[in-house]
Protein 1
Amino acid sequence: MPELPEVTTTVKGLNQVLPHLIIADVWSDYHVGTKNKSPEVIKNEKFLEYFKKEVIGKTVLSAERRAKNILIHLSGEKTILIHMKMTGHLLFGNYSFTGSKWTATDTGLLQDPFNQFIHFTLSLSNGKTLAFSDMRKFAKVTLFETNTRDSHIDLKNLGPEPLSHLTKETLTQQLSKKPRGVIKSVLMDQTVVAGVGNIYSDEILWLSGIHPERKVESLSTNEVGKIFDSMIEVLNTGIELGGDSMSDYRNIYGERGGFQNSHKAYRRTKQICQKKGCGGVITRKVIGGRSAHFCNIHQK
Ligand SMILES: [Zn+2]
């Protein structure tokens, strides 16, 4: 699932191409054959009709990331919210619609097989298309009044942003809300810290030298400080490398990021630990329903 660095990469791309463009048309087939149709997502056909009515003719002002959500702010006080979930990613380029299928007409990366599962598009006033590829159709697309963001169900309970609103002190405070939790799960809890998921929590804990099953209440001030420093370093590296494309993630031009080549723990099961002089082996264990990967020696 895209985490903070991947969503940041997408939002940076959107801000390069979308502002000032007008949304000329909306298309989606999310409502076909999907379950769990909550009334306020475009998987619900009635909501899709409302979404179209509200969005067509509006101008894109800017894009923003909050936790793992993409917010696209429009004129008329409307904001589109997209959560990419497991396999979603936004693409930008030239497309044509033939039969019942969207096809990239630019030759190149937009034709990568991972970019072919188009279930939602915005046709733009410059002739380009913002297309959303989502193989498993788990993503969420909705719309809200911009001035209601603070009370929006997907935004109101989120913890602070690690790269702009977090300090060692506020991290300590946030962690103290879950004293009995294990650190791996608590780091992925979006109400504690925003934007960290399975990949980056493994990498943060590897760099901190902290075992993923440590109870939060057992961590010393020094250890919380190490987690904070590692979080900033690992997330910034993820952004510098354009995100992680071990799975489906691609940037808006269909290109892969590079963080998957820098993993120290995530999906390196049975490989030798890369920490100098450690000699440990990366081990996989299911913790809180998710696979954790960690060194059996230096993560204590
Ligand atoms: Zn190690």
Protein 2
Amino acid sequence: MGFYFNPNIHPLKEYLRRADSVNKAAEVLGIRVIRGDREYDPEKFLRQMVFREEQRCSLCYQSRLERTRNMALKGGFAFFTTTLLFSKRQKHDLVKSAGESLGTKKSVFLYEDFRQGWHEGRETADEMGLYRQNYCGCIYSEFERFRSELG
Ligand code: SF4
């Protein structure tokens, strides 16, 4: 079971574009996906980050994984994990520690270093014609990625 919960993604069109890719991949793989669209709230996300920009990734991982853990508990899933563990561009150790701090006896955080499948995963995504993001997600990361275009 997949859970698409990304209130961090800016702007809304990017959120929808990534959601569309998740839906396509899930269809091919035969995975059901719950979407957290009703919780997509950029104002709330930015209020959590403002004046804490230096810690924003830690807060972001924590809040998304907490919501995922709660969903796993509600659904009776014994394990939960995250695609963040796949990315070579994420702060892997922070993701791992956030997940481990949220695991419970009823829903354990499943840690695995999915980065070992990085190249294969990217190739497969391309073969499937899936959109691949070119910045992490929030407005801060979008600015960092493209600021050089300002000249
Ligand atoms: S850079 Fe990525 S992980 Fe960090 S706050 Fe932004 S969206 Fe979240």
